Amino acid sequence: MNEWILGIETSCDDTAAAIVDASGTIRSSVVSSQLDIHNAFGGIYPEFAARAHVTSILPTVHEALKRAGITPAELRAIAVTRGPGLIGSLLVGLNTAAALGAGWGKPVIGVNHLRGHLRSADLEERRVRYPATILLVSGGHTLLAYTRGAAEIELLGSTRDDSVGESYDKVGRMLGAGYPGGPVVDRLARAGTPSIAFPRPMIDKGHDFSFSGLKSAVARYMESTANPSREDVAASFVAAVMDVLIKKSRQALERYPSASFVIVGGVAASPQLREAAAGLCRETGVELCLPPLRWSTDNAAMIALAAFDYLHLSILKPPVAELQLTIRDF
Amino acid sequence: MLTVAISTSSGQRALVIGEEGRVLFDSTTVAFPAGAELVEMLAGGLARVGREPRAIGSVVVDVGPGGTSRVRTGVAFANALAYALDVTVCPVSSMELAGLDAWASHRLPVIHTVKSIRGTAYVGLADGERSRALEYGAVAEIVPRLASGAGALVVMGSHREEILRWGEGAGVSLVDSGRAYGDARFLVEREAFFATRAARFPGYAAPVTEQAL
Q: Which fold, B95-176?
């Protein structure tokens, strides 16, 4: 039985391909970034993202196979993100994967992008100890989940409006930080004082999140204040975000016995979040599990690894776009 | 060897399989379930003609202009199929396809329009397999210029009624094709016309966009 899966990920603005085995060993991982295309717009421009995927996907797949040193005949399957994501971008990956599967005679599995993120923590080595509480924080998603095993997931709460990464990007734009705004906002926050009392939306209301009010509060402050300190605004915004994320995570850890607390998604790169989560885990005695930063953002290795769960459970989802998937869906 | 031709620029997705210019299978004549994927059409077509994927020797694809996501779907599939089988992929514009179709029916050049955003359109003039012009902008501005001196024309595409009305007023001889798009079967029947642009990976087909014009 061949043990390698080719993963393809095109749900947003990165074109990615990777070759991975069931243990999370990565034979190759290639990501073609579109940052230069979208930077001028201060955010992702969906039509241009889809156009760029068309031109970059085959070179990316080819490079992944070349670096892995394997032939298509050695693949067990092809795994491709089927949603959630930008429909135009998803369709490029899905149709590419379907055609590769037809040409090579390999099964093609449509993978839930969210399950890919959850499995990203086990790339390269087994890090997650179960049961685990998982915080997924990215540009497209913000949710808390509880998982008793790689395949058994319970959604505890998710954002009702903006994702936390989206809020970071929008506040970054207000502060003239370019795209993506997250790293710059974190850097500015380091130099500032959290002196502005921005709201902590829904902080005492269960495990759901809301960030649009916080983002609007930052916008109102920027509009109504002469010469606002970018550093202080960033520090105050980040402090509000961390308060919300950490308080809700603490509530989840207290309610759901966890061996590890896993943070995945692009915002897991935030130094402030990493520090705050480390403090939380010290207090609660739960092991903090942070995948390396390269696996926090969108990548195809996590899609390939998640596909092994599908194979294990004989859940062979076709490569057809589905935009409304939740964390519980395969 | 088989040729697989794919056209997704119009509302109707088509996958045609042929050999030496003869059509063996046309997905538009088969009752696939609504929303059938190209890969299902390919599998169904190969089963119908009793051949394996490795019998495919070339891929031809309609690269638009047309619905942007629809075109990308077909182009991504065509490129990957050609890559997987290590065969060539040949891009043909939807305007050229319209030209082939109009020539076959009327022995006349065609003026073809594809509606775009904010009142703009792609406007093409094609004569048989030759594309004479492809522009992006306002139909009312482009059509009179392209039609000037072209003689009698077939009209195909999204702005037929508007163009036919203009033709009456301007005294230009126009024939209504009654069609929005060219028939994908011509991609198989006239593949040889476009053979020089067929490419193997790292070459690939790219959708026609307003950026490229």
A: Nucleotidyltransferase; domain 5 (3.30.420)
Q: Where are the domains of chain B?
A: 2-93+182-212, 95-176
Domain ranges of chain A: 4-119+295-312, 129-290
For residue A289, what pLDDT is reported?
95
Check: CB of residue A60 under 8 Å from CB of residue B204: no
> CA A17: distance to chain centroid?
16
Q: What is the pLDDT of residues B144-156, one digit of tens each?
A: 999 988 889 999 9
Contact A54 B81 (CB under 8 A): no
Q: Give the pair of three-digit tokens for residue A301.
A: 């290795």
**Same CATH topology for A4-119+295-312 and A129-290?**
yes
Q: Given B72, B201, B204, which is nearest A50 (Cβ)?
A: B72
Q: Does B204 touch chain A (CB under 8 A)?
A: yes
What ipTM was reported for this prediction? 0.94
Which residues of chain B neighbour A318 with C-beta distances below 8 Å?
Answer: 37
Q: How many residues does chain A have?
A: 330
How far apart are the two ends of chain B, measured CA to CA in Å? 34
77-116 in chain B: CB under 8 A from chain A: 77-81, 83-85
CA distance A227 to B77: 53
- CATH says A129-290 is which class? alpha beta
* Sheet of strand B56-62, all strands in order from the earlier edge strand to the far edge: B22-26, B14-19, B2-7, B56-62, B88-92
| Per-residue pLDDT, A2 | 64
Burial of B193 (0-12, 13-18, 19+ CB in 10 A): middle
- Give start and end residues of each alpha helix (H) in B5-151: 38-49, 68-85, 94-106, 139-147
pLDDT for residue B212:
77
Compute the nearest-CA separation of B73 from chain A (Å). Answer: 6
CATH class name, domain B2-93+182-212: alpha beta
CB-neighbour burial class of residue A176 (10 A; exposed 0-12, middle 13-18, buried 19+): exposed
Which of helix, strand or coil describes residue B154?
Answer: strand
Q: Rounded to whole angstroms, how far apart are CA atoms B171 and B176?
A: 15
* CB distance A217 to A197 below 8 Å: no
Of B43, B74, B80, which has the smallest distance from its Cβ to A58's Cβ?
A: B80
* B68 close to A (CB below 8 A): yes
If one looks up domain A4-119+295-312 in CATH, what number appears? Answer: 3.30.420.40
Over the stretch B34-63, which tens digit does the pLDDT of each residue have? 788 999 999 999 999 999 999 999 999 999
In whole angstroms, give the CA distance from residue A146 to residue A135: 9
Query: First-to-last CA distance in chain A?
Result: 23
Using a CB–CB cutoff of 8 Å, tell me whether B209 touches chain A.
Answer: yes
- Name residue A34's amino acid: Q
Q: Is any Cβ of chain B less than 8 angstroms from the Cβ of A51?
A: yes
Report the alpha-carbon distance of residue B170 to residue B147 in Å, rounded: 10
**Neighboring chain A residues of B84 at a CB cutoff of 8 Å:** 72, 99-100, 102-104
